[in-house]
């Protein structure tokens, strides 16, 4: 075998008969009964314990991401549980699979945008950077991540609260400033209401906490996994999946003919 | 259509342009900046806010479930991320799919066992109930859930800490008593070390908090989802998936002949 | 390290620069252009090529399993694709997760039932064995797998055709006889129409082909994966997922109050 | 509610008590015993039955995609089955989740490239179009899909056979010509061996059959799902997942210290 083997290493956790270590901490002594679930998530992501201020900001991000009502992902989890009630974990998994570019990814995109802009022009002002960022997205005919919302306008109620919490804890810095400036610049350029939305605020707060944009989608997944379990527990007590299925099947099968037009091929 | 339609209802969350409601609470006013991630998980599961004592016990359960080192689920998440780095959510989903009967389900089984035993014999003593429970499992040739551990013996370090936290918060009641009695009875009957393990302790604490065994696997899924995201963030910085794959592929392909014996069919 | 390492072996496939071997055959020379997709599936499952008779029976099984209209699994795949159109594979994966005990597993159960019955009483008659089998399931208060159907009664149209194809190819033997006898016995015992359904016929034909019941669910997964891809290609041209989602979300959010009664916890 | 409801329609399949229709055909009369599994896949994708020539080409594509040895996806399916042996379908699902941009997508990319090139310049010659295509990818610093292979060089053994089958059946037209020309142009421009690989050949053959590039990934998913079931059936008889897991866990946990350098955050 000519390939050089590389070692397999991980610092996430290991065990001895008497002790369990997680991120170098003793699980029984240092974590259980001491950390809340959000702090534990922070420890898993960063390898470090949050201080009280980081804890409050990070927990605020996480709780914002948990519940969004009857989303496609929640419906998917419920329908999957209908088919496989013995595998609640697979129902959550199926739901998470739908957390793709349509509904997620904008917190990630916002964090990346803010990180890149300050990295490229560390001496600029938020207003200068915002002009460049909005012009760039416009030239590429892409929408600016983290601004605008179908329902929540002219203001996303989560944004103000997230920024307030960050300010209270000393984490309202240049990323928050830039995110706000981008929202204002975009409103001026596009001539319509484009408030910073929750994902824009979360992207900015991740940057303030020093969390890379590469981890931002992971934070969203953590939150949504909790929310999907919540939907499945409601489904156990008040099932709706069978009704959603039957209505869909009945209507889809009402007509002899397929949808107009063909699909593929020759 | 002769089928009676049933309504589709959910109390998980809903939105107006100005406000977002989760479990009847105002997300911006009542939740963000106020609740930690574990309290939010409790709210999603139960529809109620935990008090400070419930919060500490429930968060202790959750943080125990997050990280178990390089499990099959963690390896699965990493290998899936290698193939689909654009879909971190699918890598977590793939990992969760493996949380089945081999590694999970015992917290659920322990909670169910404890719930059923007290429901059937509310006036018994823990020792009496334990004798019946252990005899039942023995007769069915099934292992008793929540006791014994391959590595952590004679004591699981998480169990003592979880029971201590529960006692400090006034949640060490008859379910904890029964779980302990079952461990002692099983050790006497089987003549070997069978300490209450972490899943037994968690099952007992879920019962103490009034959370049904049907939700216990969901709590484990919440915890593990956070842990799998942690592994993927480590994988981003310190990848091991390609090495695991290449070693396996090389060794599996070293020999011309398939494993001895056939597989299926005629 | 005291653990004995075990070797990692596989006979599924391997490559050299010039050639690719699958199940010991040369992919380019022996498989491409020669085998149809069903024969390839047979080769993957059994490690052997089917003869013409086995090929016809096995392909008949597979094509029966592909399409069942707008099932929960098909809806799940479509809703997941709505959220993550960049990951068609994850939409199929999400759909497959719902192929659990509610809708699947009966072909597996039927094959296992037939395999066990003949293994235990190789000298019996189908009628004798059927009496024992039906009595056993009745005593355990379990439903007999492979018989009865909500919609297709008094006859499942697939069953007669599958049994006909098997007879034409010389694969209508004692497993088919026993499956038929079980249907008749059950109708007599329960006093209602309980025809052998498609999963019962498929279970019997798997046994006739010498395929273990352990592989039967895998055959169903192969078929359904093809069907779910079909639904996603229809969804690309004629989308319905957004409409299913919006109707569900609108109705679920119409009311201020959650479903009557609580859910969990204290 | 002011939103206009849109109808929910599907032509995939529907049932009456006596009959089951798939794509407008009668399942029992027209499909079972008549179509092979590859023809059924073609019917699901296109809504039409293939003729004998289309059938041979399409089945050749499918069987090429089934088995690739011990890939990350196969390892994932096996490890997931280790954790959840009760849910074979979830193990296949987990495996499919890894079929992302790293290993898949090039058949799709090749088909899209060929479709676009001929659509934009229907009167050109393959050589002219190839020059433009290769220059475009080079300018965008992207690799040309469908050419080159780490192991199979200077020739991918599948390509010649796939093109031969297409030629025998009258489906070697301008898309095959263009794919070949692109391979030659790229070898000239980049000065190294860049043979048309199997995904390039498959992309070209999809175009020849009139199947849109949007469906190409779906064809790959169909094939791979069959292959993953095959790996799980081998795993049932000759398990390797536990060994892969234990070796990885042992090596990852050998050292007290995490990998050098931190991960995230402040």
Automatic annotation (TrEMBL), chains A, B, C, D:
Which keywords does this Swiss-Prot/TrEMBL entry list?
A: Transferase
Per the similarity annotation, which family is this?
Belongs to the citrate synthase family.
Keyword Transcription belongs to the record: no
The protein's superkingdom reads Bacteria
Query: Which GO BP terms, alphabetically?
Result: carbohydrate metabolic process; tricarboxylic acid cycle
Task: Identify a single GO molecular function assigned to this protein.
Answer: citrate synthase activity
Q: What is this protein called?
A: citrate synthase (unknown stereospecificity)
Taxonomy of origin reads: Bacteria, Pseudomonadati, Pseudomonadota, Betaproteobacteria, Burkholderiales
What is its pathway? Carbohydrate metabolism; tricarboxylic acid cycle; isocitrate from oxaloacetate: step 1/2
Classification via Pfam families: Citrate_synt
Top enzyme class: transferase
One GO cellular-component annotation of the UniProt record comes to: cytosol
Q: Sorted alphabetically, which PANTHER family does this protein's record hold? A: CITRATE SYNTHASE (PTHR11739), CITRATE SYNTHASE, PEROXISOMAL (PTHR11739:SF4)
Q: Specify the species.
A: Pigmentiphaga kullae
Q: Where is the signal peptide?
A: none
Q: Which InterPro entries match?
A: Citrate_synth-like_lrg_a-sub, Citrate_synth-like_sm_a-sub, Citrate_synthase, Citrate_synthase_sf
Q: What is its EC number?
A: 2.3.3.16
């Amino acid at each position: 075998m000519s390939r050089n083997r590389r070692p397999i290493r991980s610092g996430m956790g290991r065990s001895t008969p008497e002790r369990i270590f997680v991120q170098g901490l003793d699980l029984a002594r240092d974590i259980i009964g001491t950390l809340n679930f959000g702090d534990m998530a922070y420890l898993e992501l960063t390898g470090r314990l949050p201080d009280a201020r980081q804890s409050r900001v990070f927990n605020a991000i996480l709780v914002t991401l948990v519940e969004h009502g009857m989303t496609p992902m929640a419906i998917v989890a419920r329908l999957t549980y209908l088919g496989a009630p013995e595998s609640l974990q697979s129902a959550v998994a199926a739901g998470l699979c739908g957390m793709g570019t349509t509904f997620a990814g904008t917190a990630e995109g916002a964090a990346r945008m803010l990180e890149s802009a300050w990295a490229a022009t560390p001496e600029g002002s938020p207003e200068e950077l915002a002009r460049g960022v909005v012009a760039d997205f416009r030239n590429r005919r892409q929408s600016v991540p983290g601004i605008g919302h179908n329902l929540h306008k002219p203001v996303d109620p989560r944004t103000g609260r997230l920024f307030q919490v960050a300010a209270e804890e000393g984490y309202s810095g240049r990323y928050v400033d830039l995110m706000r400036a981008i929202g204002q610049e975009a409103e001026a350029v596009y001539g319509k209401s484009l408030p910073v939305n929750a994902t824009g605020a979360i992207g900015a707060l991740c940057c303030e906490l020093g969390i890379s944009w590469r981890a931002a989608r992971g934070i969203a997944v953590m939150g949504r996994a909790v929310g999907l379990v919540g939907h499945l527990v409601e489904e156990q007590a008040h099932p709706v999946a069978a009704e959603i299925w039957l209505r869909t099947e009945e209507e889809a099968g009402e007509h002899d003919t397929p949808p107009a037009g063909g699909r593929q091929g020759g």
